[in-house]
Specification:
The protein is built from 14 helices and 15 strands. Strands 5-4-3-2-1-8-7-6 form an eight-stranded parallel β-sheet. It has helices at residues 2-20, 25-53, 55-60, 70-74, 80-83, 88-97, 105-115, 151-161, 187-204, 224-227, 229-239, 293-305, 324-345, 438-444, and strands at 62-66, 119-125, 165-171, 213-217, 244-245, 255-256, 270-275, 309-314, 358-363, 366-371, 377-382, 388-393, 401-404, 408-414, 424-430. It starts with a helix and ends in a 6-residue tail after the last helix. By secondary structure, it is of the alpha/beta class. Helix 1 packs antiparallel against helix 2 and helix 7 (105-115) packs across helix 13 (324-345). The structure holds alpha-D-glucopyranose. Residues 67, 78-79, 217-218, 259, 274, 281 line the site of alpha-D-glucopyranose. This is alpha-L-fucosidase. Pfam families: Alpha_L_fucos.
């Protein structure tokens, strides 16, 4: 499905970008033919192994995103270099001042683990161009600048130490490299920059053992043909046959990446919603717009209800420590996950969704009603189609009484105070897969007489 579209897009891109680069039309045709054969082969082999490669990821549901780089030392958001139009000189001076504490990623990994996250994705290089890893291709990298060592290596070891899967974020866009913008209009610059980019990706996927996720970001200013994205992915899968890749190098990849919002993909395509804890990815010392643990848990529920993953970000401070508010929120989320984790990890797609104080997940014939505004007394669901056999409070195991007719299912005798925080889950055992039909209720529930 998505793959034939991707192939067409690539082919279109190939012609257009070569034309933009001034390549004569006589040359275009053979290149397109080659590219088509190449793309087909790559698509097929990626597709054939996809279900198996993505198995752990679908089970994982919840991951930690980490934005860490020179921008962290400035503390004004990871886009500061561009948004404030910093001259290159003063910005790169900060690379020398970037001195994170030794093994700071260990605290990130511990926090992720405690929060119930199963994988991590670290910015190996963000748009600023600074490489958190050791590389032969530039001096603008952690071992040769302030950190004096390979941050990515520390991160990989820390994540593995906690039993977490390891992901690498990599920004194609680069505000530091001399060819980072002119590659769009100068073929020699494009050649150099694409070689550099493929070279860096080769290094990160060669030097750290098995890597589970490659998370590309911002492909500006080139298209898939310009980046040679097919070749890029082919190299990636040669180096890491088990890896999964996202869709931000202008190819479909293995999963989609809705950002700062939750929208399910259709046709069974995998998706992961990435989101910040406040309004910034990189450390922004003035951003106090923190989400509550309740919002985070609600978001996580919404993602898994519709078959997606939730990748939640932290932006460590210059020394690598995690902002206190993030620690507090993630600790609360972790406590909730200790009790409610199975309702997340083991969730199947869930059709039930209508309530103004609860959201839902489902495992087989069990419906989990996650009540975020606890009214005490009773809660009710409209139009539940399956017959309820029993219900209990997940936190305490206490049985809950209920009544049910074709319109309303009502759980009664609830404690006045919410038994769990920030969300209380009621496990509802049904006689078949629970679904909801609120249209039926609207149309058929007896109305008053006039
Ligand atoms: C955007 C931003 C970037 C952030 C990313 C995370 O593309 O440019 O700063 O890293 O989203 O999804």
């Amino acid at each position: 499905m998505g793959h034939s579209i991707s192939r067409r897009d690539v082919l279109k891109g190939t012609g257009a970008s070569l034309a933009a680069l001034g390549v004569g039309s006589t040359l275009v045709r053979p290149v397109i033919a080659q590219e088509a054969a190449f793309t087909e082969a790559t698509d097929k082999s990626q597709e054939a192994t996809r279900a198996q490669r993505m198995q752990w990821w679908h089970a994982a549901k919840f991951g930690m995103f980490i934005h860490f780089g020179v921008y962290s030392t400035i503390g004004r958001h990871e886009w500061v270099m561009e948004d404030e139009a910093w001259p290159i000189g003063p910005y790169t001076e900060h690379a020398a001042k970037f001195k994170p504490a030794l093994n700071c990623p260990r605290a990130w990994a511990k926090l992720a683990m405690q929060a119930g996250m199963k994988y991590m994705v670290l910015t190996t290089k963000h748009h600023e161009g600074f490489c958190n890893f050791d590389t032969k291709l530039t001096d603008y990298c952690a071992p040769k600048q302030g950190p004096g060592r390979d941050i990515v290596r520390e991160y990989v070891e820390a994540a593995r130490g906690e039993g977490l899967h390891v992901g690498f974020y990599y920004s194609l866009m680069d505000w530091h490299h001399p060819d980072g913008a002119r590659c769009a209009t100068d073929e020699a610059a494009r050649r150099r920059f694409v070689d550099y980019t493929h070279g860096l990706i080769r290094e990160i996927l060669t030097n750290y053992g098995k890597i589970d996720v490659l998370w590309y970001d911002v492909a500006w200013p080139l298209d898939a043909a310009g980046w040679e994205s097919e070749k890029m992915n082919q190299m990636v899968f040669q180096l890491q046959p088990e890896i999964i890749v996202n869709n931000r190098n202008k190819l479909q990849g293995d999963f989609s990446t809705p950002e700062q919002h939750i929208v399910a993909e259709t046709n069974g395509r995998a998706w992961e919603s990435c989101m910040t804890l406040n309004d910034s990815w990189g450390y922004q010392r003035a951003d106090d717009n923190w989400k509550s643990s309740r919002t985070i848990v609600r978001n996580l529920i919404q993602c898994v209800r519709d078959g997606g993953n939730y990748l939640l970000n932290i932006g460590p401070k210059p020394d690598g420590s995690v902002p206190e508010e993030s620690v507090r929120v993630l600790t609360e989320v972790g406590r909730w996950m200790e009790v409610n984790g199975d309702t997340i990890y083991k969730s199947d797609l869930c059709q039930v969704r209508r309530s103004n104080y609860a959201s839902f997940t489902r495992t087989g014939d069990t419906l989990y009603m996650h009540v975020h505004f606890w009214p005490g007394d009773y809660v009710a669901i409209s139009g539940l189609k399956a017959k309820v056999n029993s219900a209990r409070l997940l936190k305490t195991g206490a049985e809950i009484r209920f009544t049910q007719d074709e319109f309303q299912t009502k759980f009664t005798g609830l404690p006045e105070k919410a038994p769990d925080y920030p969300i209380t889950t009621i496990a509802v055992e049904c006689d078949s897969e629970p679904t909801q039909d609120t249209d039926f209720v609207r149309k058929n529930k007896p109305r008053a007489s006039v």
